Amino acid sequence: MNHTETYEGNKQILLLSTLGFFVSVMVWFNMAPFNSTIMEQLGLTKDEIGVLMVVNLALAIPGRIFMGRLVDQYGPRKVFSVLLIVMSIPCFVFAIGTTYWQLLISRLILGTIGASFVVGIRMISEWFPQKHTGFAQGIYAGWGNFGSALAAFTLPTVALAFGGENGWRYAIALTGLIALVYGFIYYKKAQDTPSWKKFERSKSSNGMEATSFSDLILLMLTSLPIYGGLGVLVWSLQNTAVLNVNIAIVIYGILATLYIRNMMKLWKRNREYLKTNIPKSEIYSMKQVSILSFAYFSTFGAELAVISMLPMFFQDTFTLSAVGAGVIASSFAFTNLVARPAGGWLSDKFGRRKTLMTLLFLLSILYFAMSTLSGSWPIALAVVLTMGCSMIGQAASGSVFSMVSFIKRSRTGQIAGMVGAYGNIGSVCFLATLNLFYPSVFFVVIGLCALVCFISSFFIIEPKMDGDTQVSTKKLARKAKLQYPTGLNQKV
């Protein structure tokens, strides 16, 4: 069979999935252009709007983990379609909301649509051969994330077209309608794999399973920041005096209880699993997942955090107008259209491990340089440094995900969910750092994280190119055999 011919539908799948993610991001950030309008009409405070912005990100963290499980079990076509259709409901509720609690609850639920990212990652990994996967996923993520910029540019115009004080409601409701319609289109047009290929499903939706005891410990440690990231979100709300201290303590307790409970279940389930004869084809490295998760924490997480603080930083540092600072800040996001696909292409062309290491090293240097920015710098040089930091960081994000689908095919959704969640966790943690320290410290912390990731990337195993198969498991199998206790009757 000529595989080149069997992939003739890959461009259509890439277009369908990229548009799906584009629509998801547009819906996810459809509130941003109307913050001041909503404050004025509904009599909200700046802190209350800030809470709406924070909860809009909150459920994207656990949502990516959950959607990763679903996509591995039921396939990306069904999961992506259902997610778009269901998330149109809280979008409509937000559009017609008249009380703060209606806005808060609908916005909290709507944040789940940010989990759509991991669904498309699994879809593209099924349709593209290894030598093109990085570039295709870079296009998917880079162009899909542009949905937030389109929302910022076009939704105010749509609101003006409808006119009146309810113009913003019509504009936001329109994005929900687009998501609803596109969910049906995606279900009709997309398919999980080419016709000649069988979709490898996860055997259960109980979460990731470790294939050695050392990997089990690492999985439990890697899961901790997911709950910790939600805790930092709660702390941010408490720190702004929006969330009562007593309520915050209760939420901290709930998060701690959930982590302990889920880790006990994880330990029990995996202990039984490790006593079985795990097939060699099922073995994968949790170390790979952990390193890539932290790398995405330091690249995409930093990108989100920097985009959030950059306008005010340039306005204060160089005494620019709000418009001028906004233009510079927007350039940081626009480079995603080119930089993220470029990172995937470089990984396909020159090696995934080598590309990621190079980009992480350069990124650490650039963020250290950003920490020295001051009003004495020529503004042009500051913009060049900022653009360079943006390009390298987003290319590194593309390089990270060029490797995700090669760790274990049947668990791609779960692994992508874990790695993707770390991007959101990174943004929350870096912004919390900014709230505590000066911007110079903020940039130094990001630079240090990138440097630690660079050192950690020496331990990444380069994916093997073997036709259109996944990573060779021979090396992992040999390592796993050494790690298993002798009393478990383990055959690898």
TrEMBL record:
By sequence similarity, the record places it as follows: Belongs to the major facilitator superfamily. Nitrate/nitrite porter (TC 2.A.1.8) family.
Where exactly are the transmembrane stretches of this chain?
Answer: 12-29, 49-67, 79-102, 108-128, 140-162, 168-187, 208-235, 241-260, 289-314, 320-343, 355-373, 379-403, 415-434, 440-461
Q: Residue limits of the Major facilitator superfamily (MFS) profile domain?
A: 13-465
| Subcellular location field | Cell membrane
Q: Return the protein name.
A: Nitrate/nitrite transporter
Pfam families (alphabetical)? MFS_1
User: According to its record, how does it sit in the membrane?
Assistant: Multi-pass membrane protein
Q: Which domain of life is it from?
A: Bacteria
Organism field = Aquibacillus rhizosphaerae
Gene3D superfamilies referenced in this protein's UniProt entry, alphabetically = MFS general substrate transporter like domains
